[in-house]
Design brief:
There is one protein chain. With about 130 residues, this protein is mainly alpha-helical. The protein folds into 2 domains: about 60 residues, Winged helix-like DNA-binding domain superfamily/Winged helix DNA-binding domain (Arc Repressor Mutant, subunit A, Orthogonal Bundle), CATH 1.10.10.10; about 40 residues. It is built from 5 helices and 3 strands, in the order αβααββαα. The two termini are about 15 Å apart.
Length: about 130
């Protein structure tokens, strides 16, 4: 999996790592049980501080996407992905609400927004480029 960071982004680097690893899992590019680079190796590979990678891995572990073993290292959770919970749905609604509001202000219809979401869902699922 290729990690692409935008150092000019307002989004923190650790968040970019989290999102890209989750997207790699969603697209099937990263398989359940697949090993990920160690904190040290990933930090060196992408040129960021160890603490940045460690924070991303900690968040992914807390949410159930990865496991950290002393012997095996870091792996995509072989037991599956986190469940769809009410808390997750509420979080998604909080995060999407301002995006939807801006789309409405700019004149986007519900159908146009739905089409964009449908296309993005398919792109992520198929592992297509983010742009």
């Amino acid at each position: 999996m290729i990690i692409q960071l935008d150092m000019q982004s307002e989004l923190p680097i650790y968040s970019q790592l989290v999102y890209q690893i989750i997207e790699g899992i969603a697209s099937g590019e990263l398989q359940l049980g697949e090993a990920l680079p160690s904190v040290r190796n990933l930090a060196a590979d992408i040129g960021v501080n160890l603490h940045t990678v460690n924070k991303a891995y900690t968040l992914l572990k807390q949410d159930g996407y990865i496991l950290v073993h002393r012997q095996k290292g870091v792996v995509v959770n072989p037991d599956g992905m986190p469940d769809l919970t009410d808390d997750f749905l509420k979080k998604q609604q909080r995060e999407l609400r301002p995006i939807i509001a801006e789309a409405i202000c700019r004149g986007m219809t519900k159908e146009e927004l739905s089409a964009v979401l449908d296309q993005m869902y398919d792109d992520v699922k198929m592992g297509h480029n983010k742009e």
